[in-house]
Amino acid sequence: MKKHFISFCVGLLLGSTAFAQHLGVDYFLTDQLDKANEIFESQLAENPAEACYYLGEIAYLAGDTARARAFYEKGLAANPEYALNKIGLAKFLLKTDQKAGIKALTDISKEKANKKNVEVLIAIAKVYYDANLSAMYEKALNSAEKAGKNSPLVPMLRGDVLKSKDDMGGAAGEYEQAINFDEKYLLPYIKAAQIYADINPNFAIEKLNTVLEIDSTYPLTNRYLARAYYNIGHYATAISIHEKSFNINSSGIGELTDYAAALFFSQRYDDATNLIDKGLQRDPLNFVLNRLRMYSALETQNYSAGLTAAEQFFALPLKNNKYIPRDYTTYGDILSFNKLVDRASEQYTKAIDMTSEKLELYKKIGEQLNKAGYPGAGAEYYSMFIEAMGGEADTKDYYTMGTYLYRAANAIVRDTTVDSTYAANKAIEYLVKADTTFGTIAARIPDNTLGFLYRARVNASLDPETTKGTAKPHYEALLNLILTKENYTKSYRKELLEIYQYLSYYYYLKFDEQSLDDDKAQVIAYSNKILELNPDNAIAKQLIEALMATPENGKKKKK
Predict the structure, then answer these.
(1) Which residue in 31, 470, 499, 520 has the fewest CB atoms around it within 10 Å?
(2) From CA 459, how far away is CA 469, in angstroms rounded?
(3) Domain limits of the chain?
(4) What pLDDT, in 10s, does the model give residues 51-79?
(5) Does the domain formed by 246-322 have CATH 1.10.8.100?
């Protein structure tokens, strides 16, 4: 297995007693390098050897080996007895001349001041580990263990090594061992909480509360406490913790990112966007912040900015990051709202292909496409959802798909940018599917009016001139159902007016063609029913007036 460079070094500073001097190390060991760098730069004058060593380590981690070497040399010049800078320089020798490098590290470990110095021996072990010299690493670590049998630094290094190999359970166990060796040493609590915050947030909270009991002012606690609360969905609590400890000028980019995420998921989108933008000024290539910027733009309906954010996000180098389905669906939604639905479909397909949880994805995509003004495309995804449910879809899902199809049919015939013949045929396709969908609803819940009402409306759209009467049986079935309901005149007034208006017009057209007294009577009867519900209805009055003026078996007067 390939080993990764781990940012472990001395946890108990040589010759130091002040807490502030330990704090920089703790930030370093928890990968908060910006904060660590700031602290050690401020200590260059008062403690140059120590500060140079850690600044060298930070530079080395960043890949700036020339700067790292310069710091080690400067630190050694300030205090030739400070062993850690010697170890830092030995790393370079180990790369160019392994035998000479091993000798240099061995000589350092044999110096009288260092033979029993756990901190120095641990630092040497770490160098060997990073150089993939496993046997030398174990030998140095065993020497460190003998020098300090109950030193927490040995299990701390073992924990960091296991963490670098993605063995989080093993690493957590080593950190627990470090706590057992020294319950007042706070760093292993934080190290353990870093792991538990993601896999067992409640346990992380317990660990961090222990830290607060030992030292309520320890500044590393709040970040991971906030993250743990965030991971169990207690966003308000996470935000309140950040509000107490976060400083836009001094807090690290990781803490800023955690804070922005908590604001976003608590739906404080404007606050999140403001913080995200400040974070991106400091770290333009930050993967999580760019992702959150894209998400926030969608939620605030800033679709133009969202398109820019999405394109920037997907142009970032992935490195160790991974896309998730929501990345693609968010990009797809933004493209849809920017009227780029063909490109949106490509993103939705990527999201669907990368997850086994397709059902809800079909549904959400359908809803977003309808919201963006593409009900036909939305209905297609809803159809996939219902088909995937295998007959277990809820009736309300059929209703949603049916209404999308109905809207799509109405929208396409009004779209002047579409060929009229294509639009007419596509509208019929949508309406036929909608009729089948609402028919399913009517069959599932025969005592509910919705299925019958929409079947009537859909069939009325299939027969816009009302010459075939395709909607008539559905309006009549709806009327028969409504008449069985309690207090139906008041509860279903709107539906009754729609039914009576359709039937009166249907019989009016029949009478115009055939001049049958029965058709005339039906027009007058349904018109009177309209007037019972709406005495001021002008159309009903005109129909009655026109037909009452016609003789028996005679044509109505033409206007």
Answers:
(1) 31
(2) 8
(3) 246-322, 485-559
(4) 999 999 999 999 999 999 999 999 999 99
(5) no
